[in-house]
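Sample entry follows:

:::
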Amino acid sequence: MNTNQHSYIYTYNEVDRCGYRTEIGREGKTILLKGVYDNGSQLNWSPYEKWENGVNRYRIEFDHNTDLRLIQKSDGKTLSYKDNSIYPEVKGKYCYRVHATNDKSDSSYSNWVCLYGPPVVFIPSGFTPNGDGLNDGFSLVTRFVKHGDLKEIKDFRLSVFNRWGEMIYDSYDVDESWDGRYQDKDCQQGAYIYQIRLTGIDKYILFKSGTITLLR
């Protein structure tokens, strides 16, 4: 049985508070959820069947770093949804499931679907390390970037150089940020060169380089 590939009809018996089981089980049909990532998560699912009055509502749930979040509600006839949201805190794939309910508060859940696209990195143009809690570090926002052994250069590396080509910051941790200091001293205001190498979940290696402005 593979609930990620097929929808199945099943029967189940009900047990009351006294422990009596019904002789004739009710039937149900599993929800099959499928999806693709194309500038957003396109989700499509098969209808849940066998409820007397049909499905009252579908809920699309998202795994936000093991915190299950409801991101969309739809009526019982809608069988698709496109999620164009960006979740900077989520490391790795975007995972979804569908939750169906009826007018009697019965529930049925689909399989999980996890999607990803090519790696993306959002790079700021500048930062202000003045301790006010706003843009105090040079940090990146990434999507669908591999988070593995941080010592593996092939996964991620961010290097910063001054105008003379001297490396003043080097990190293998995508979650770290440069605080604008070198050898325990504040760096001067101005433009600095950065080089980024990262690996996506799809194993595509992305290179980026440019300048970041340090403002004081």
Remarks:
- The chain is about 0% helix and 45% strand.
- The chain has two domains: 9-115, 120-214.
- The two ends are 61 Å apart (CA to CA).
